[in-house]
Amino acid sequence: MNILHSKDNLGGARSLIARRLATDTTMTVVARERRTTDGLLRREADFTLQRPGQAPETHQIFWEINTPLDLPAIESLDFAAIATLFVAMREKARLVIQGPVTATMLRNMEEMNEAWNQLMPDRYALIPIEATEILSDLPPAPPGQSRAVVAFSGGIDACFTLIRHLSGHAGYRTAAVETAVLVHGFDIPLSAEAAFETARAGAKAALDAVGVSLTTIRTNWREVAETRWEMDHMAALAGALHHFSGACDIGLFGSDLTHIFHFWPWGSQPGLDCLLSGGRFVLRPEGQGFERSARTELVASVPALSDRLRVCWAGPLTGENCGICEKCVRTQLNYLAIGRDPGPAFPVRAGVLDALCLNARHAAQVNYLIDIIDSARRTGVTGGAWLRAVQVNWLINRALLPYRQDLEKWLWPVKVLRRALMNLTRTNAAPRAPGTLPTPSLAQQIGRAVSVPAGPGPIQTT
Are the C-beta atoms of residues 216 and 188 closer than 8 Å to each other? Predict the structure, then answer.
């Protein structure tokens, strides 16, 4: 007998592991679906928290899916498992999925649990994860035969991902795009119906121009299951995309960050995104090998998408770009850095003071400024007051970064004055008449392959 594997010698390890996973709270998850006569598919996941000495507390997540694809009946509850993981970690609850979950999903959830417990131990606990039935994995599709669903918000990362696969720019990773998904309930709340309809109409026009169907999902995930959006938004997206298992084998989404820059803690990371996959449906990030301006360069080569871009989430809820929030201004600067006009997607154009006063609240946004400066140098865009303003702004924001949290509390009067000054320098873009955007074939619009710009190393955070 091998003494290292004897029961007595492993007893201490088992006892330690049991203590670390000990919890008096259980969270059970059940799921169901129903189809309406008008073709809408509604899936629901009920999670019930049973705390010691308290009555059970049940909440329901729903997804209302309007898609041209023929989605098969529920075979795996991977979508419900990943959608409820962060709630269970927050509640320090034993997570029990009442139904089949793939073996790979269970393994990945355990590793994700360990990762987030290490990153944010005060918020996310180590928990036991179980399923009443374990499904075997299916082999991946051969190269060139993958079918993909694309997460499509209408922004730079989503458009870049779509173009990569429609044009074959993704090489051997290229998948046939079956549909693109716009989610109502993530950046646009369920209550903002008019804003979502505007965003939906814009997304449909853009996708129609490149021959891709639009799927919409309406979900209350943020209202009942969000723990902190910056950390758990990828679990929300994965929960939505896993509904397409069976009709597709890959879910594609634009990555927030790159291989050379990691911003911790943040919900989307090269080391964590791969853990969103199950054994019958793979989640794959796109764009990690490209800085944001390089992604913008590829998107700008397809006017049908570029002219209908939607990046705004911090401005007024209109379903269009406000032109004045941090992301709207920064995206316009990405276009200027590659020598391109931002186009009709931005109703208000950023001025020099916008570039000078851009508020980088964290390290990722400071690194976006580095990318803009380097891209301007790479493409030969020199001079101009806006570029000098970005360079000064980068120096200021990098110096203030360690003190940003305290400054946010005390400098609100300065923000009001800055906003008033910037409003005096902005100019309106030319109005966009309905139906006037060009819609040439995709082959005519795809430009040259985009190279990764070299530049100074990114700011590293811990």
Answer: no
Residue 30 covered by a domain: yes
Q: What are phi and psi of 95, to 5 degrees?
A: -95, 120
Residue 362 resides in a domain: yes
* Residue 284 · residue 251 · CB < 8 Å: yes
Instruction: Say if residue 174 is in the same domain as residue 267.
Output: yes
189: which DSSP letter?
A: -
Q: Where are the beta strands (DSSP E) in 292-447?
A: 348-349, 427-428
Give yes or no: residues 62 and 193 share one domain: no
- The answer to whether position 304 is within a domain reads no
Judge contact between 233 and 153, C-beta under 8 A: no
Domain that holds residue 219: 147-286
- Judged by DSSP in three states, 166 sits in helix
Rounded to whole angstroms, the Cα distance separating 268 from 273 reads: 6
Split into its structural domains, the chain has a count of 3
Q: How confident is the model at residue 9 (pLDDT cuts 50, 70, 90)?
A: confident
The percent of residues in the chain predicted with pLDDT above 90, rounded, is 71
Statement: the pTM of the whole predicted model exceeds 0.90: no
4 has pLDDT over 60: no
Q: Token pair of 201, please?
A: 């109409």
Query: Is 378 found in the same domain as 331?
Result: yes
> DSSP letter string over 346-379?
-SEE--HHHHHT----SHHHHHHHHHHHHHHHHT
Q: Does any domain span residue 320?
A: yes
Which residues touch 74 (CB under 8 Å, ≥6 apart)? Answer: 31, 32, 33, 43
Query: What secondary structure does DSSP assign to 261-312, as a single string?
Result: B--SS-S--HHHHGGG--SS-EEEEE-TTS-HHHHHHHHHT-HHHHTT----
- Same domain? For 209 and 268 the reply is yes
Amino acid identity, position 291: E
Q: Which of 7-11, 69-73, 290-294, 398-402 has the lowest mean pLDDT?
A: 7-11
Structure tokens at 38: 């008008």
Mapped onto helix, strand or coil, the DSSP state of residue 253 is: strand
4-8, 79-83, 205-209, 454-458: least confidently modelled range: 454-458
Please name every residue paired with 157 in a beta bridge, in sequence order, or none if there are none.
Answer: none
Q: Are residues 158 and 279 in the same domain?
A: yes
- The CATH number assigned to the domain holding 169 equals 3.40.50
| Average of per-residue pLDDT values in the chain | 87
Residue type for position 108: N
- 66 and 107 fall within a common domain: yes
One domain, residues 441 and 335: yes
Q: Dump pLDDT digits (tens) for 163-216.
A: 999 999 999 999 999 999 999 999 999 999 999 999 999 999 999 999 999 999
